[in-house]
């Protein structure tokens, strides 16, 4: 069913946008997108009705479509074969573009792609955003299963008529290698709006305050960070923000925490709202994320835009940070430079740290001004609409 709205309707399937979950990168990116382009497009969102995990309660929703201000959302119960009622929802919701998120999502993306291939849902221009899943770091985890799926997707023409969405030229290269020509690729950066940071608060006890923000899963490499901190001599307070999605991996990290020297204190805050994370940046000296790969790095952007220098891997779009006095982007093969960076930053006087805070904020502002993210996203959606005609 084509949309009857005066604005073209974009139906977005984004499983991680369950009620109350605003801290993940894709969620913040979608909110910024819908806010920035709301005068040109109407956005409708289908998501899980609860967090992941067997014990998560279902929130009561009397209205099938909830007004979020920037979009209208429908929350779906999850069954053995994905989001329940997804076929009916897609067919009865007027829309001009269908936007999927994640290549491997078994609850929304894969059922929608299969139904589209079989002609069970209305054929509409369709975007698929892998969100970094074609990156070497992501593909390296459970690589055998992922490679089998990718080969099957190519052979079954699962992506026929789909446009793959990359958020950077580097991600586009990774996607081209993984998709092998199975679908065209368009580049439009993530939309992230500048954040008004609160005033910086100095450490009351002289400890160097590091923050890690992200899901506690192998690709984020919290264990790598803990192994680095085990070799640091400076007094450290390490604040970890994010849900422990992988229980076995979190247990391994807890073992590493228990073995840390007494000069390193770790505080796990669990899942934290986006506002809570931004507020925490006011009392963070250095953001620490040795990730195995990010297509954008929303938490990195939030740190930079709030004026927090970052210590990250060289597997993101944020590069040459030392030259901009905004932090360090280091290779993962050798942990010695990571230890040295933390020790060096811990010894710096406040004046030099403040110089790096200004450099971090400048890098974020420069990215926002030069990315053209809003215009390129609008062009991408407009081109999808044109393809239907």
Quick recap of the structure?
Helices cover 36% and strands 18% of the residues. It is built from 13 helices and 16 strands.
Write the layout of secondary structure elements.
Elements: E1 9-13, H1 25-36, E2 42-48, E3 66-67, E4 72-76, E5 78-79, E6 82-83, H2 86-92, E7 97-101, H3 109-117, E8 126-129, H4 136-139, H5 143-155, E9 162-166, H6 169-179, E10 185-187, E11 208-213, H7 222-229, E12 236-241, H8 247-258, E13 264-270, H9 274-280, E14 286-289, H10 298-305, E15 310-313, E16 327-330, H11 336-347, H12 350-371, H13 373-388
Parallel strand pairs: 1-2, 1-7, 2-4, 7-8, 8-9, 9-10, 11-12, 11-14, 12-13, 14-15, 15-16
Antiparallel strand pairs: 3-4, 5-6
* General form: globular
Reported CATH architecture of the largest domain: 3-Layer(aba) Sandwich
Mean pLDDT level? 91
Distance between the termini: 15 Å
Order of helices and strands: EHEEEEEHEHEHHEHEEHEHEHEHEEHHH
- Return the CATH class of the largest domain: Alpha Beta
How many discrete domains?
A: 2
Structural class call reads alpha/beta
Radius of gyration: 21 Å
Extract low-pLDDT stretches.
none
Summarize the biggest pleated sheet: 8 strands, mixed
Give me the side-by-side strand order of the main sheet: 3-4-2-1-7-8-9-10
Keyword list:
Rossmann fold, 2 domains, 389 residues, 6-stranded parallel beta sheet, 13 helices, alpha/beta, 8-stranded mixed beta sheet, 18% strand
Write a structural description.
- By secondary structure, the chain is an alpha/beta fold.
- It has 2 domains: 9-189 and 372-388, Glycogen Phosphorylase B (Rossmann fold), CATH 3.40.50.2000; 208-369, Rossmann fold.
- Helix content is 36%, strand content 18%.
- The protein has helices spanning 25-36, 86-92, 109-117, 136-139, 143-155, 169-179, 222-229, 247-258, 274-280, 298-305, 336-347, 350-371, 373-388; strands at 9-13, 42-48, 66-67, 72-76, 78-79, 82-83, 97-101, 126-129, 162-166, 185-187, 208-213, 236-241, 264-270, 286-289, 310-313, 327-330.
- An 8-stranded mixed β-sheet has the order 3-4-2-1-7-8-9-10. A 6-stranded parallel β-sheet has the order 13-12-11-14-15-16, with helices on both faces.
- The radius of gyration is 21 Å and the shape is globular.
